[in-house]
Design brief:
It contains 16 helices and nine strands. With 432 residues, it is α/β, with parallel strands linked by helices. The chain has three domains: 179 residues, 3-Layer(aba) Sandwich (Rossmann fold), CATH 3.40.50.300; 72 residues; 79 residues, Arc Repressor Mutant, subunit A, CATH 1.10.10.10. A hairpin with a 2-residue loop joins β8 and β9. α12 crosses α13. 34% of the residues are buried. The C terminus is likely disordered.
Length: 432
C-alpha cells in the first residue's frame, strides 16, 4: 500500500483509439518477439519479419516494444503509420534515411542523410548505407520497423511507387547483410501478400492473435505492481469479457486503475470491480465494434447475426453450423452448409468466434453484447417474407396477383381474330 503523503503515479493505460500505442503497457507477445530476433539474426537469408494482425491487435505496440528493448547490436528505426506517403519513391527513401540518421545520432553516430537529387535507389544503395556501415561495427544492424505497411501496397497499386519496389528491397537486403526490415500489416492486406514478392517468404510471416489469459494477467497486474493486484478470478472475468482483445484490455486496465485512485487503500481488484467498470468499457468500445463489423462481408454478417440471435434465444444451448443454416432459412437469408462452413472459418481466423468440437461461441462477452444490440442487416438484399410483411403489403400483393391471374385468363379464353391467308411459297426445281 502506498504511503498517504505520496501522490499515485499517473494512469499508465491508453484506452482511446488515438492514444499512442507505443506508450501503453505491454505484455506477452513472446513468440512474436522471438520471431523478430530470429529473423534479424539469420546469417544467410535476408533479414525480414512481417507481422499480420487485425485492427487493435497490438501491431504498433509490438514495434514500439521491439524498439524500446533492442540490445546494442540492433539500431531500430520506427517508421510510423498514418501519415501520407511522399509523392514519389525518391522522397520516401530520403525520409527513411533521415529517420535512420536521427536514430544513429541518438546513439552517437553522425551519418549525413542529404536529400538525393536524382535516383533515390542508387543513392540509398551506394551512398547512404555505405556511410552507415562505416559508422557501425560489423556486428551491429540497422533495422527499419515500418508500421501500417499496407500503405506501401496501396501506393504500388496506385502507381505512386514503382511496381518493382519490393523487389528492390529484397535485393537491398541481400546486398547489405547488416540491414533488416520489419513490416506490420493489417489482416485485410493478407490476400495481397504476393505483391510483396520475395519478401513474403513463409518463414518471415508471424500472425498476432489476441492475448492469452496469462498475457491478460500481465497487462492488468504489471503496471500496477506495488499499488494493487488483480485476483485470478478478476483476470478471468476480464479475459472472458474481452476475448483477449488488447484494446479492450487497455480500457479495463484504465478504469480499474481509476477505481483504485478513488480509494488507494484498495489492494485487491475482484470480479465485483470488473463488473462495476464494464459499462464504461462497453460504451468506449462502440466505435471499435462498428469498425470491426464494417470490415465483414455480407455472409459473415449473416452468420454473426444468426449466431447472436440463437445465443439470445438460449444462452446455454450448444450452437452448431446446422443451427445457423436453419435460422437463416427461417428468416429468408438462406446460406448452404458449404458457405456457412467457409464463413465460420473466416470468422474464427478473425477471432470473432471460436469453434470447439463443432460448438460455436462468440469470443468475448462484450462483442456478444454489442452483436445482440446492433447486428442488423437492413441493407442486405432479401425477399420480403409474407409472414413478416405489413398487412397492407400482403393485401397489395394479393390484389396484384388476382389482377395478373384475370389478365392471363382473359388472354387464354379470348378467341383470336381470323387472319388473312398468306401466300404459300413456291418451289422451283432445277432440271438437270
Amino acid at each position: 500500500m502506498m504511503p498517504e503523503n505520496v501522490n499515485p503515479p499517473p494512469n499508465p493505460y491508453r484506452p482511446m483509439i488515438d492514444d499512442d500505442p507505443t506508450q501503453a503497457p505491454f505484455a506477452g507477445r513472446g513468440r512474436a518477439i522471438e520471431h523478430f530476433h530470429r529473423q534479424m539474426a539469420d546469417p544467410v537469408q535476408p533479414k525480414i519479419a512481417i507481422f499480420i494482425g487485425q485492427q487493435g491487435a497490438g501491431k504498433t505496440a509490438l514495434l514500439g516494444r521491439l524498439a524500446a528493448t533492442a540490445d546494442e547490436t540492433l539500431i531500430p528505426v520506427i517508421v510510423p503509420g498514418g501519415a501520407p506517403l511522399p509523392p514519389d519513391e525518391t522522397a520516401w527513401l530520403a525520409g527513411l534515411a533521415q529517420a535512420a540518421a536521427a536514430a544513429l545520432a541518438a546513439r552517437g553516430h553522425d551519418v549525413e542523410a542529404e536529400t538525393p537529387e536524382a535516383d533515390g535507389r542508387d543513392w540509398l544503395r551506394s551512398t547512404f548505407l555505405p556511410r552507415v556501415w562505416q559508422a557501425l561495427r560489423r556486428h551491429r544492424r540497422l533495422v527499419w520497423l515500418v508500421d501500417d505497411a499496407d500503405a506501401l501496397l496501396q501506393a504500388v497499386h496506385a502507381g505512386r511507387l514503382p511496381p518493382d519496389a519490393f523487389e528492390f528491397w529484397r535485393q537491398l537486403l541481400h546486398e547489405h547483410p547488416q540491414l533488416g526490415l520489419a513490416l506490420a500489416l493489417d489482416t485485410l492486406s493478407e490476400s495481397r501478400l504476393p505483391a510483396l514478392g520475395g519478401l513474403a517468404v513463409p518463414e518471415a510471416l508471424c500472425r498476432l492473435s489476441f492475448l492469452t489469459l496469462e498475457e491478460c494477467a500481465a497487462v492488468l497486474r504489471e503496471p500496477a505492481a506495488g499499488l494493487y493486484t488483480v485476483s485470478d478470478a478478476a483476470v478471468a472475468a476480464v479475459h472472458r469479457a474481452t476475448g483477449g482483445w488488447p484494446r479492450l484490455l487497455q480500457r479495463y486496465g484504465f478504469h480499474l486503475y481509476r477505481l483504485w485512485e478513488l480509494r488507494p487503500t484498495r489492494t485487491l481488484i475482484s470480479p465485483q470491480e470488473v463488473r462495476q467498470v464494464t459499462p464504461a468499457v462497453h460504451e468506449q468500445s462502440d466505435d471499435d465494434f462498428k469498425a470491426r463489423w464494417a470490415r465483414l462481408n455480407l455472409n459473415e454478417r449473416l452468420a454473426l447475426t444468426a449466431l447472436a440471435s440463437l445465443v439470445y434465444r438460449d444462452p446455454l444451448a450448444k450452437i452448431e453450423a446446422g443451427d445457423l443454416e436453419t435460422w437463416l432459412v427461417e428468416t429468408d437469408y438462406p446460406l448452404d452448409s458449404t458457405a456457412i462452413n467457409a464463413v465460420l472459418r473466416s470468422l474464427e481466423y478473425e477471432e470473432w468466434i471460436s469453434v470447439v468440437s463443432g460448438s460455436i461461441a462468440i469470443n468475448g462477452e462484450l462483442p456478444q453484447i454489442w452483436l445482440l444490440e446492433n447486428a442488423r442487416l437492413e441493407t442486405a438484399p432479401r425477399l420480403i417474407s409474407l409472414r413478416q410483411a405489413p398487412r397492407w403489403v400482403i393485401a397489395a400483393a394479393a390484389l396484384i396477383a388476382i389482377a395478373a391471374l384475370a389478365l392471363i385468363l382473359t388472354l387464354i379464353t379470348t378467341p383470336r381474330a381470323a387472319s388473312a391467308p398468306t401466300a404459300q411459297p413456291t418451289v422451283t426445281l432445277a432440271s438437270p
